[in-house]
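Journal club prep — side note

Before the paper discussion, L.F. wants everyone to see what a predicted structure for a comparable chain looks like in token form. Sequence:
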Amino acid sequence: MKVTIAHISLNSAGGGESLCLSLIKTLRKSGNEVTLATVDKTDWKYLIAIFGEVPFPNHEICLFSSIPKTRFNALHSFLLVAGYFIELLGLKLLRKEFLISTCGEKINSVADLVYVNGLPLRCTFLLPNVNTRRRCFSKLYNSFLRTIDRVNNSVIVANSKFIKDIMSCVKQDAVIIHPPVAVQKFVCTGRKTDRRNLVIVSSRFLPQQNLELVPKLAKLLPKYAFLIIGPSGTNSRQTLEKLEEMINKLEIEDNLKILTNQPSQKFLESLSTAKIFFRTLPHEPFGMAIVEAMAAGCVPIVPRNGGPWVDILDQKQGEYGYSYDSIEEAANLIDKLMKDEGLRREVSARTIKRAMTFDSSFFEKKIVDTVNRIYRTKRSA
């Protein structure tokens, strides 16, 4: 089968990009000819530096060699989404290949199969504490996409139960296939007992990641070390500057460090020495890095909403990790685990077992079966 996988851009090097790469690998391994379509040209050297070994498609298509840099993150994002919509329509009209979109959070239609990695733009208005401008835009965008939905009937795959439940509120049904996590790569460090009083935070440096929470925690817990590690791009400057400003103002240079654009081996080494993995993003769709950290033996502490709490921790406080509603609760949980090594090791052992249930092999079987089923249905129609 000839398959085209459309993704806005792989150069963000986040969880959605990791999912797209895994899909390329899975479909090629099952004997398909895969074309990757992106808005801007993929920087493969950068992806290799971040992820390590990466799979390559048989063919590549891109609209532009690069997207013009702007001072405004919102404008840059708009250009990418607009380009992606144009590219999807072009692929649908001009190519007769099976079309998969792996950015369903932006546009969950047009393609034969749409994988939703993040919180859909059309559903943002359903969340609490959303400002008026974002709420109005989300409602307008939902109305626009409803028109597109009538023209094309896509099969939607959600990366978590949390996302499926949200999409059902705008009358969009979805199949759940959790994203693939290479847990075997991390579990070899999970049994390591010689660990520091280190809290690790893995995240892209973007405004919506809520990373300002980390300096506040570091101030409340000066006895423990904190590390924020993740990819940084052109749209990360504002967030990094704000974090550096907070670090200086709160005088926490000794217990909070920031590392950007590190190789995957550095992330693995950090997980192997940390005791706790902390997440800041509210309403997160899933959280592949959380599962990786769990496989490496870190106890996760996540917001009490979103896929990490619903899908990964199964809404069981203290079983596979912990959730928090406030910064004070998060600080108390970290302090409790750092002081009670017996409890930490007990929970850590369970997190490793839980992480194994999200191994890549489950994703590979489910996604191949789903693609083949849709393809057969399409051919017989």
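L.F.'s comment for the group: The domain at 183-356 is CATH 3.40.50.2000 (Rossmann fold). Keep this in mind when we get to the figures.
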